[in-house]
């Protein structure tokens, strides 16, 4: 590696690390996105999964999973739950457009050799912990598995204890799993690490100041509801459900599929998301781009598809978790 490149990598890296420390990542679909994913999912549950979900939800939810799917966003800044903030996303190195759970970090070499720029030693410490793992880790501590992919595996495993004595709070496990299966389908949730999945990309959305991440969390969905569905979320959900049973009927089995013997397949969902982030979310966007009809109308089908896939896959995962073949094996 040439010295000039090394030097600019170092500077970039210091900048990235400072950004991460200063700006906590706010990631994931907004309120409507999570609601839609969970509504679709609950309508597709097997009898045994529907029964388990009903038992795990607090009485106050009146058996409506969607009403609590935003809970992990509401609590992630509370001192008691701050550990969960890193579990909402899995950002990847800039411009590579693929997800790798734990391959070697391209930054590890630089981190290990940045002592002269790092009088406090904090970066070298970070380098030691992050060098093995690329995309699924806590960005500030480097701890492996602390990302949305690890979290989906974690809460699936906890829920497999349903019906037996367990130290885990399975109500929380259900709400985390339902939220994170939604989050992982938001393409910018697996966006680039340097801009925090688009959070640091300032844009104009029909002349209103936004960031790109927020456009994908909320604005595309809300604009669609206003323009095409009479500002009625239920109408949008019904239209998606229609397409799951008709236009996409041939693809749904493929969405539900997971490698044999696996219950969730979050690596697949994260890989799809970063590809779509590159192909659609970031494409043609630069700082202060003015995003209007051309962007909205070409990206809306992707957003709708991801909501549909999130709902279908959450149901498939819960059906596998609470299906007799798996619980019998426990
Ligand atoms: C797994 O769940 C426990 C809480 O039950 C939590 O402390 C831990 O951080 C979680 N890890 C991941 C990767 O989700
Ligand atoms: C499980 O978590 C929920 C949500 O945080 C909480 O309301 C409930 O009291 C917890 N249950 C137990 C047994 O701790
Ligand atoms: C929204 O649409 C649903 C389904 O068509 C309908 O039942 C409901 O009354 C509508 N809500 C409002 C506020 O118009
Ligand atoms: C449903 O599918 C039709 C035909 O492909 C498409 O025109 C429409 O936009 C889709 N609607 C939704 C909500 O996905």
From TrEMBL:
- First and last residue of the signal peptide: 1-28
EC number(s) per entry: 3.1.30.1
Q: Which Gene3D superfamilies match?
A: P1 Nuclease
InterPro entries for the chain: PLipase_C/P1_nuclease_dom_sf, S1/P1nuclease
Name of one Pfam family that matches: S1-P1_nuclease
**Swiss-Prot/TrEMBL GO biological process terms:** DNA catabolic process
- Which keywords describe this protein according to UniProt? Disulfide bond, Endonuclease, Glycoprotein, Hydrolase, Metal-binding, Nuclease, Signal
The record's catalysed reaction(s) read: Endonucleolytic cleavage to 5'-phosphomononucleotide and 5'-phosphooligonucleotide end-products
Give the source's domain of life in one word.
Eukaryota
Query: What molecular function does GO assign, one term?
Result: nucleic acid binding
- Which PANTHER family does the protein's record reference? ASPERGILLUS NUCLEASE S1 (PTHR33146:SF20), ENDONUCLEASE 4 (PTHR33146)
Protein name, entry field: Aspergillus nuclease S1
């Amino acid at each position: 590696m040439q010295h000039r490149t090394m030097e600019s990598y170092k500077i970039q890296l210091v900048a990235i690390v400072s950004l991460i420390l200063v700006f906590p990542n706010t990631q994931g679909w907004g309120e409507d996105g999570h609601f839609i994913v969970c509504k679709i999912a609950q309508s597709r549950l097997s009898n045994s999964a529907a029964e388990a979900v009903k038992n795990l939800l607090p009485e106050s939810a009146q058996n409506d999973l969607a009403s609590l799917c935003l809970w992990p966003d509401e609590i992630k800044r509370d001192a008691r739950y701050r550990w969960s903030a890193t579990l909402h996303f899995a950002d990847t190195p800039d411009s590579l457009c693929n997800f790798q759970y734990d391959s070697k970090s391209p930054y590890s070499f630089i981190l290990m050799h940045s002592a002269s720029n790092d009088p406090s030693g904090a970066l070298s410490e970070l380098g030691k912990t992050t060098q093995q793992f690329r995309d699924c880790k806590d960005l500030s501590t480097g701890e492996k598995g602390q990302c949305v992919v690890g979290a989906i595996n974690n809460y699936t495993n906890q829920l497999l204890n349903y019906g037996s004595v367990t130290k885990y709070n399975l109500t929380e496990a259900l709400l985390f799993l339902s939220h994170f299966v939604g989050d992982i389908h938001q393409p910018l949730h697996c966006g680039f690490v340097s801009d925090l999945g688009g959070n640091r990309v300032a844009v104009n959305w029909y002349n209103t100041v936004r960031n790109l991440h927020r456009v994908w969390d909320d604005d595309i969905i809300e604009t669609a509801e206003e323009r095409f569905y009479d500002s009625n979320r239920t109408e949008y959900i019904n239209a998606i459900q229609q397409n799951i049973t008709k236009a996409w009927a041939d693809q749904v089995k493929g969405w539900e599929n997971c490698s044999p013997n696996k219950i969730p397949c979050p690596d697949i969902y994260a890989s799809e998301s970063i590809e779509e982030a590159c192909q659609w979310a970031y494409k043609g966007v630069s700082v202060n781009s003015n995003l209007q009809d051309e962007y909205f109308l070409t990206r809306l089908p992707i957003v709708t598809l991801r909501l549909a896939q999130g709902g279908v896959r959450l149901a498939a995962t819960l059906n596998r978790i609470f299906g007799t073949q798996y619980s019998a094996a426990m």
